Amino acid sequence: MKARLSDLRDESGEAPKPSAPDTIGNWLDVLERMLALPASRKRAIRAELEDHLRSRVDDLTITGMSEPEAVRAAVSELGETAELAERFRQAASVKRRRYLMHAAVLGLAGGAVALGTMAVTGGTGAPSMVTAGGAVTAAAGSGSDEAPRDVFGDMRRFSVHELTASSRPLEFTPQGAMLVEQIQRLVATSSTVPVPGGRARSAVAKDTKIVLLGNTLFVSGPGDTDQRVGWILESLHKDAARLSELHEVRDRESELRRHEATQRRENERREVEDDLEQRRDELRTRLRELNIRTGDLGVELQDLRFSGDSSPEEVERRQERFRQIQREEFDLAAQKQDLETEIERIGSILLDVRYEEIERRLGSRLEVFAPRPTVALAEPRDEVALITQRYHRLREQLQKVRVELATVELAAPSTDEQKAEQAKATAAMNELAVSLELEIEKIKEQLKAKGTGSTP
Amino acid sequence: MAKQQSSESTGGVPGLGPEHAEMLVLSVLASGPAWGYRVSKEVAARSEGAFSLGPAKLYPLFTKLEKQGLVTASWEEIRAEGADPEGKGRRRKWYRLSDKGRRRLASRIESHRRFTALIEAFLPSDDSAEGALA
After folding, report:
1. Which end of chain A is less congested by CB atoms within 10 angstroms, N or C?
2. Which residues of A touch B101 (CB under 8 A)?
3. Could you tell me if B132 lies within 8 Å of chain A, comparing CB atoms?
4. Between the ranges A133-142, A327-336, A384-393, where is the mean pLDDT highest?
5. Which chain B residue is nearest to residue A74, measuring alpha carbons?
6. A94/B68 Cβ within 8 A
7. B55–A49: do the CB atoms touch at under 8 Å?
8. Contacts of A166 (CB under 8 A, 6+ apart)
9. Of B7, B68, B80, the CB nearest to A77
10. What is the pLDDT of residue A81?
11. Pairing of strands A216-220, B34-35
12. CA pair distance A225, A192, nearest whole angstrom
């Protein structure tokens, strides 16, 4: 009997704090949910791993590790939970594959039995026992045999257990019936009989009795019947073994192919992810550049507005530059908007790519313990939405310009210089307001053309 | 993940393939019934720490061996000394080698010996080893 750490008490007589049971229990809960196996099997795996983890924690704490550390170490030794669950699933599927293989072996029994029969070269006297490769064994006269001796008397017995991987007796399967039928046909005494125009080969199974009980074959017959049956079963077993080996090789190969395919998919995903991240970085860099340019333009605009007295040519030049800056600012704003939309779209794709990968790893059970995030994956915005957004932004700008204009107009300049400055600023702002209004009108036209029907 | 790899490393000797892992587990069980953690420790002890059969490999392997009928399993409820006899204990799964498992082990050992004998034929004898490798 091994004591559980949580059941032990220290020198002060106090039981250790139950940190381990919680952590281990939580981890086992997660694993259990991820196991794609029947409930009873899940419970068995859980119990076994719990025993392992607690034993391991006990050992590690004896070496001086604290209990939480020991729990962490023990759990980490089990590796990634999803991978472990997958290993259990693969291990549990072995039997089914083998059962199918053995069914196929028995399906091929005709061919194998024919080969076995070809080896029969004639009677050699008294029936003899046959042990085929240590697997097909005859159990004649064994006192421990559970077969009813009064029924089967001195019939020879052959265990055919190795020919089936199923726990279900061969007797109850179609393969069992086929085996008996084929043996019956092939152990029959071959002879020739007269027919019109000559003689024909004939097979007589007279006095041959074959009974399949559970996974034991009882045989009685004249001459070398037992020997023939032995050879037939031996041949069947050899074929089963060969096919089994072949199947194992095929299993390994398909496992390798699956692994390679997973690796390939993973590499492709990484490439897509890298490309997207690179593109997003480039766009962000471009956006930063545009922001810097917008800032520069703002400064220049400010300088133009408040520059001192100049000649009419200089004023004209400044006004022209003023208009250029405004146009460039509009262009920049549109470009920035496009860039932001593209960056957002790439972010959504990346999120999708990564989420798909997580989902692939954890399978459909992901939702059980980690509900899909409610973050709305951004849909690519349509053109109308973008234009509408720009319309609102321009309206805001226009509003600000009008407020600023009103402020400037309300000021009462005392000197001529100030009056001239006020006039210039007013003119510039009026011009800006007109430009904005024109731009807004253009947008309205665009929206009408898109068939939105009304102003946003 | 890195931790797991290091725990399952084989300490500089060639890695344990699935067939070797199976042979080691069946060999340990040939000495008597045992439960998973004990088998794991036994493998580490017998190989002086060179082989470490971690739980991530060991328990799926047991599942496979059980499915193939190479081992049989039974459960035991264990309880700490002095613990409440009415309380629920921990369940431990014991594995035993089946007849089929014994035959598989014999076959694996034979194949392994044949293989090492064949390899041996290519290696220089102890006396001439240094000279041959010089």
Report:
1. N
2. none
3. no
4. A327-336
5. B55
6. yes
7. yes
8. A99, A102, A173
9. B7
10. 79
11. unpaired
12. 19
Average pLDDT of the residues in A131-143: 34
> Which positions 60-79 of B are in contact with A (Cβ < 8 Å)?
60-61, 63-64, 67-69, 75, 78-79
Neighbours of B36 (CB within 10 A): 23
Instruction: Name the least confident of A9-13, A234-238, A401-405, A426-430.
Output: A9-13
In angstroms, the CA A445 to CA B133 distance is: 89
Is residue A328 predicted with pLDDT exceeding 80? yes
CB pair distance less than 8 Å for B93 and A54: no
Nearest to A240 by CA among A86, A102, A76: A102
B24 pLDDT above the threshold of 90: yes
CA atoms within 13 A on the CB side of A220: 8
Please tell me the distance in Å from A46's CA to the nearest CA on chain B: 10
- Beta bridge pairs of residue A132: A136
| pLDDT reported for residue A191 | 58
Residue A223 has phi, psi (to 5 degrees) of 60, -130
Asked if A51 and B7 come within 8 Å (Cβ–Cβ), the reply is: no
A12 confidence band (pLDDT: 50, 70, 90):
very low
Is B13 near chain A, with CB under 8 Å?
A: no
Q: Does A69 touch chain B (CB under 8 A)?
A: no
- Number of helices followed by number of strands (H, E) in chain A: 13, 5
Taking the C-alpha atoms of residue A101 and residue A247, their distance in angstroms, rounded to an integer, is 8
A55 phi and psi angles, rounded to 5 deg: -65, -40
Query: What mean pLDDT, rounded, does chain B reach?
Result: 81
Within 8 A of A1 by CB-CB distance, chain B residues are: 78-81
Q: What is the pLDDT of residue B60?
A: 92
Tell me the pTM: 0.37
Residue A343 has pLDDT above 60, yes or no: yes
Query: Which member of A4, A79, A92 has the closest CB to residue B67?
Result: A92
